[in-house]
Specification:
Chain B: Pfam families: Cytochrom_B558a. The complex is a heterodimer of chains A (567) and B (188). Chain A contains 20 helices and 14 strands. Chain A has 567 residues and is of the alpha/beta class. Chain A has 3 domains: 236 residues, no CATH class; 95 residues, Elongation Factor Tu (Ef-tu), domain 3; 175 residues, Rossmann fold, CATH 3.40.50.80. The radius of gyration of chain B is 30 Å and the shape is elongated. Classes of the chains: A alpha/beta (567), B mainly alpha (188).
Chain lengths: 567, 188
């Protein structure tokens, strides 16, 4: 239980606060519209459907404000930098920005459904009232016209077309109705193209359809401009007392106690909620564009084995931290696509590098363009946005670090290991790490030979300084066949591993995490251990559980903190 | 966007449209709206579209993720053969189903969404996609066992040379390992 609080406490607190604000807004506005005197006559026609429509509208205002904020990655990077003082738990929350974005999106979807259903009822009942189906008061209220000395209550004014079609006609000829339909349609398209299946396999569909949010916000801001939610103007002189006058609708305007009731529409408020985040998001996109326009020079282009491209780039004023990633855009391939790549160079170097593996349309085209370049030529124009932060920046704060890289997830650790080595050589005081356990899991070593080269270099340098046990690395080859086993059993007595050429032997199959955590705990009985993973979700769940299981609430004993990087 | 299978997105959109049509229809019937007959149609059409679209098709490239419990729906949909396999049929079917929804406000949104799904299905059909059922792999589909395994091994397993196998009494910690089966002490 204590471990759960350490690892999840702040997230749960934020979620509780968010939900609390949602519930408060819903209940507050529900009772505002359900009990307010100025809505007495409106409620006479609509009942509680009025409140049921306005309460989710308030929640929608709040959530539409929130939804733009987690995707302003430059703003989040800025916040992350300024939180250096406030501890790593605060900064970890910023890594969960996409999860929060999705949660807010679900709430928007749910509230839109409630809002829409309530308005369907409202429109139907307004229509019925206009047709004279309800009681005398209702018909009298609906008959109030929109002219010089009378104001209307019922926004449905037409009576001369087929009554079944009046609601549809009304919706498509009012600002609120038309914008409502358009933005709901955009929302549905955004949601269906954001399903996990579509997002993971056909990213472009997701990305381009998601830009319908521009139409969504434009429509949202104008949605209330028609002011069709009507309330009674209680400040008329003489006042119209509805308790007395509600049964005397025939006498309105004829007796002094009951002048004709005046109505006015609600002032549109949504723009006040969303204008701030819209401006912030606009600044964010502007900043991305400015960064894109800055010149990027190629220092070196290397084709690594197994179709891996290494690009060493130089950009003015570019500074990075370990394990950060950048977005790359190559107009020669696609004008609008930005793809994230983790940087594999250390901040101590005067350039930044990325290793790009052939994994889809864009990467394949890039690799083929580079292969056809003559020696020493500059590559195609490249836009670079970033760098953006991830949990890896916290690696140096832990005395003991367990780094787990699965498959392509080993990339940020190239940067981390290089940086640790530079810091160690310079005796950088920022480096609190005394011991590193590195676990590299992959199905096959194709496409990662470059990483094995890096480990070889580090191994050699560490041996020269007699620092053999600073870095313990364990390689796990999870996919192997008969030929490999034959080769290994015959040559097992050699010093270096047959697969990687490293001194540390390769293990086969998956690691037994219980054993590994036990070993780390035994060798470091009083330390705070940071566990960093870059890999699949299933592994993240396993490691998170193990961290919780092997952590001790006692501050003198070993404690494991789990950090995950994701894109 | 070369490798997009439009049918996957069309499927999500059609399923969502079915649910929206169903919801609009329920509201129309429960609220006894004018034209509730169209709402009742919306309920029936929504249920039909959901049943048809619930089983996800198999992707031509990559792993297909089936929805929970979709197997019985897959069997039903597969039974209609070319009617459900062909996406042109689905495109026109959805276009036809959505039309009556336009006659009443409660079902209008479902109608428009289904219309969009129909257009995406048309795009998928033009690109030559078709629906394949996701069926669980059966025993018979496993590769036949190669004959060499049937006989017991004729050679001893490869062993390291004898100097490696000798007991390392000077380094007992390093020599220890977990045995999968119990071992008795060496009597020699």
């Amino acid at each position: 239980m204590g471990n759960w609080i350490i690892n999840h406490g702040l997230t749960s607190f934020i979620l509780v606060v968010w939900m609390g604000i949602n519930i408060f807004l819903f209940v507050w506005f529900y009772f505002f519209y359900d009990l307010g005197d100025q809505f007495f006559y409106t409620r006479h026609i609509l009942g509680s459907a009025l409140a049921w429509a306005r309460a989710p509208a308030a929640v929608l205002n709040f959530n539409c404000l929130l939804i733009l904020l987690p995707v302003c990655r430059n703003l989040l990077s800025l916040l992350r930098g300024s939180f250096v003082c406030c501890g790593r738990t605060m900064r970890k929350q910023l890594d969960k920005n996409l999860s929060f974005h999705k949660l807010v999106a679900y709430m928007i979807g749910l509230m839109t459904a409630v809002h829409m259903i309530a308005h369907l009822l409202n429109v139907e009942w307004y229509n019925n009232s206009r047709q004279g189906v309800y009681d005398k008061l209702s018909t009298a209220l609906s008959n109030l016209e929109d002219s010089d000395n009378t104001t209307y209550l019922n926004p449905i004014r037409t009576t001369d077309i087929d009554p079944q079609q009046i609601p549809t006609y009304f919706v498509f000829t009012t600002i609120a109705g038309l914008t409502g339909v358009i933005i709901t349609l955009c929302l549905i398209l955004i949601i269906t193209s954001s399903m996990e299946v579509i997002r993971r396999s056909y990213f472009e569909v997701f990305w381009y359809t998601h830009h319908l949010f521009v139409i969504f916000f434009a429509g949202l801001v104008f949605h209330g401009a028609g002011r069709i939610v009507r309330s009674q103007n209680m400040d008329t002189i003489p006042p119209h007392n509805f308790t007395f006058c509600k049964d005397r609708s025939d006498d309105w305007g004829r007796i002094p106690e009951c002048p004709i009731p005046q109505f006015r529409g609600g002032f549109p408020q949504t723009w006040m909620w969303v204008i701030g985040p819209m401006v912030l998001y606009l600044c964010e996109r502007l900043l991305r564009f400015i960064r894109y326009m800055q010149a990027v020079r190629y220092r070196k282009i290397v084709m690594r084995p197994s179709k891996v491209l290494e690009l060493q780039l130089v950009k003015n004023g570019f500074t990075m931290e370990v394990g950060q990633y950048v977005f790359l855009n190559c107009p020669a391939i696609s004008q609008l696509e930005w793809h994230p790549f983790t940087m594999t160079s250390a901040p101590e170097e005067d350039f930044f590098s990325v290793h790009i593996r052939s994994a889809g349309d864009w990467t394949n085209k890039l690799i083929s363009i580079m292969e056809q370049l003559p020696e020493g030529a500059q590559g195609p124009k490249m836009g670079v946005d970033g760098p953006f932060g991830t949990a890896s920046e916290d690696v140096f704060d832990y005395e003991v670090a367990m780094l787990v890289g699965a498959g392509i997830g080993v990339t940020p650790f190239a940067s981390i290991l290089k940086s640790i080595w530079y810091k160690f050589k310079e005796s950088n005081p920022k480096l609190r790490t005394r011991k590193i356990y590195f676990y590299w899991l992959c199905r096959e070593t194709h496409a990662f030979e470059w990483f094995a080269d890096l480990l070889q270099v580090l191994e050699k340098e560490m041996d020269e300084r007699g620092m053999g046990d600073f870095l313990t690395y364990n390689l796990y080859l999870t996919g192997w066949d008969q030929n490999l086993t034959n080769a290994v059993t015959v040559r097992f007595d050699e010093d270096t591993d047959v697969v990687t050429g490293l001194k540390q032997k390769t293990h086969y199959g998956r690691p037994i995490w219980d054993k590994e955590f036990e070993k780390v705990r035994k060798e470091n009985p009083t330390s705070v251990v940071g566990t960093f993973l870059c890999g699949p979700e299933a592994l993240a769940k396993v490691l998170e559980k193990k961290c919780a299981k092997y952590s001790d609430v006692d501050p003198r004993k070993t404690k494991f903190y789990f950090n995950k990087e994701n894109f | 966007m070369g490798k997009i299978e439009w049918a996957m997105w069309a499927n999500e959109q059609a399923l969502a449209s079915g649910l929206i049509l169903l919801t609009g229809g329920i509201v129309g019937v429960a609220g006894q709206f004018r034209g509730w007959q169209f709402a009742a149609y919306g309920v029936a059409a929504g249920v039909f579209v959901c049943l048809l679209e619930y089983p996800r098709g198999k992707r031509s490239k990559g792993t297909s993720v089936a929805r929970t419990g979709q197997y019985c729906f897959t069997v039903c949909v597969k039974a209609f053969g070319p009617l459900t396999r062909n996406y042109y049929v689905r495109a026109f079917l959805h276009a036809a189903i959505c039309v009556p929804g336009g006659f009443m406000l409660a079902t209008v949104l479902g109608c428009v969404c289904l219309g969009i799904a129909s257009l995406i299905y048309l795009a998928a059909a033009i690109r030559g996609e078709h629906w394949e059922p996701i069926l669980p792999r059966t025993e018979t589909q496993r590769k036949p066992v190669p004959p060499s395994i049937k006989n017991p091994p004729s050679n001893p397993p490869p062993r390291p040379p004898p100097e490696m196998r000798r007991k390392r009494v000077d380094d007992l910690e390093g020599a220890a390992y977990d045995n999968p089966i119990p071992v008795t002490a060496n009597e020699y």
